[in-house]
Design goal:
This protein is of the alpha+beta class. The chain has a domain at about 170-240. It is about 30% helix and about 15% strand. It has helices at about 1-10, 25-35, 60-65, 95-105, 170-185, 215-230, 240, and strands at about 40-45, 70-75, 85-90, 110-115, 120-125, 135, 140-145, 150, 160. A hairpin with a 6-residue loop joins strand 4 (about 110-115) and strand 5.
Length: about 250
Amino acid sequence: MEEQAFAMILQAQVCLDQSELVLSNGVEAALNYARRGWHVFPCAPDKSPLTPDGFYNATTNAAVIRGWHWPLVGLRLGERSGLSGLDIDVREGGVNGYASLTALGLKPEASLMDLSPTLGGRHLYFRFLPGNNFDIAPGLQFKNNGYFVIPPGEGRSWLSFSDPSPAPEWLRVLIGVRALSGRQGVQGGAVLSLPLGPGLGGGDWKPIGQTRNVRSRTALIVRWLERTLPRTNAPHTSKERRGNPP
């Protein structure tokens, strides 16, 4: 698969100063992340939490971290850690988040980014951006409060590792449109996803392709998004005005 080969090449080109980021074992990785204010907790090899209340027990307390066993590090996303995530998923014989990004004329890039453990998917991390979790397109998911990921630990490296940058403009606009749509009484309370045409999930939609700048791409995304919103003339309830979560 072309996207997997591309991901493997990027992984081989990782430029990371290991003297600054110690990933020799789980506890050292967890302590390093905690020093950055990221709330962490231990997970089993199958990614299930090893703490009684899962990610709710995530902490930055070094003494607590040293007392836990760390097969894998779990990183709590959202406001507590100051991180929002974009999950690019690849499933054998199924969805391909890279194809969805290509259809939107976007690239899988961020200043803080890693490869997911399976099939060459990718996690992109941004400064925390208020917003509910939602599926953007097939294989693309915005993850925030209520989610955790498995960041690099022993045996895994970052594709890029620096301070998280703000979320890209197209993502901020989509989140804003979803919130606005919920207040305006969209059925279901929010935009669920972008339809990406017969090859990527059905619907009468053509790929945006490359445009000159992010603002142009964002305008096109929002235009197609607005066409798909099922409007309703029913009176708004107070719950609808606040915007229902998906």
